[in-house]
Amino acid sequence: MNEMTYIHPEAHLHPTVKVGPFSCIERDVEIGEGTVIDSNVTICEGTRIGKNCHIFPGAVIGAIPQDLKFQGEKTYTFIGDNTTLREFTTVHRGTASKGQTIVGSHCLIMAYCHVAHDCKLGDHIIMSNTTQLAGEVVVDDWAIIGGGSLVHQFSHIGSHVMIQGGSKINKDVPPYILAAREPISFCGINSVGLNRRGFTREQIATIQNIYRIIFMSSLNVTQAVAQVMEVIPECEERNVIINFIKNSPRGIVKAH
After folding, report:
1. Hey, how many other C-beta atoms are within 10 angstroms of the C-beta on 238?
2. Model confidence band, residue 1 (pLDDT cutoffs 50, 70, 90)
3. Catalytic residue ranges
4. How many CB atoms lie within 10 A of CB 205?
5. What are 64-95's pLDDT values in tens digits?
6. Do 197 and 208 touch, CB atoms closer than 8 A?
7. Peptide bond before 183: cis, by omega within 30 degrees of 0?
8. What is the C-alpha to C-alpha distance for residues 77 and 61, in angstroms, rounded to an integer?
9. What is the pTM of this model?
10. What span, in angstroms and rounded, lies between the C-alpha atoms of 91 and 109?
11. CB atoms within 10 A of CB 32
């Protein structure tokens, strides 16, 4: 830390935190052990950053939301442990709707990405360059979103999903799949990612069988879900997929 850095007296930084020149850390900010804040970073009021994070130059974390309904209410931004926010990333604090914006642990948010108010990101998420999340988007653990993607407000992206760069996501993307094309569509199972994360052949085969019924049969989604419940033995993968679909008010992507 040096005289070119501003840290509000009411900010709480662990003694091991490193802050580069020309950065500004406002009041009511907490930053955990081992975190590095590079130059020209702005950390706004109500932000909580975990341990061993790295915030690259030009990032703005915890700014007020770009939502005309925001009336200055006390809200927060949470960044988990071991998360990296690259150059010029912006993460906005919550509104009265949820009260907080959350980015989980072990995430990589690449340059020029935006995480809008009240979003909830799980752990081990990768957002490639210039991906833009609108308000109240949910992204589950281990999802990967390709560069330049646009995600509509209130959308839900499931766990272990891989989304093609440049996608426009205006429907919910259920777990374990590849999603691509225009409009955004089901393009198969993310088998490479699932293998890397220790899913067995049997688990992957079960996922494939479930989505064969949901996307490749002549049944509508409601009928397909009922068929899955009838013919696929109960397991964690089946429960995750069915619960996701049943709790999708926007509806899920279709098969191309």
Report:
1. 17
2. low
3. 117-118, 135
4. 14
5. 999 999 999 999 999 999 999 999 999 999 99
6. no
7. yes
8. 8
9. 0.96
10. 10
11. 19
**And the tokens for 53?**
């994070």
Among candidates 19, 34, 121, 132, which has minimal Cα distance to 78? Answer: 121
| Tokens at 36, concatenated | 């590095």
Tokens of 84: 């990296």
Rg, C-alpha atoms of the chain: 20
Q: Tokens for 138?
A: 């949910």
DSSP code of residue 241:
H
Which position has the token pair 């703005």?
Answer: 60
| Token pair in block for residue 196 | 């890397």
Within 8 A by CB and 6+ apart from 187, the residues are 164, 177, 178, 179, 180, 181, 256
DSSP string, 84-130: EE-TT-EEE---TTTSEEEE-SS-EE-TT-EE-TT-EE-SS-EE-TT
Both tokens of 219, joined, read 């049944």
34: phi > 0 → left, psi -120 to 50 → alpha, else beta; which? left
Please answer whether residues 93 and 101 qualify as being in contact, where contact means their C-beta atoms are separated by less than 8 angstroms. Answer: yes
Coil, helix or strand at residue 191: helix
Q: What are the CA-CA distances from residue 37 to residues 7, 20, 52, 83, 128 (Å)?
A: 12, 6, 10, 12, 20
> Tokens 């052990």 correspond to what residue?
33
Residues found in the chain: 256
Cα–Cα distance, 104 to 119 (Å, whole number): 11
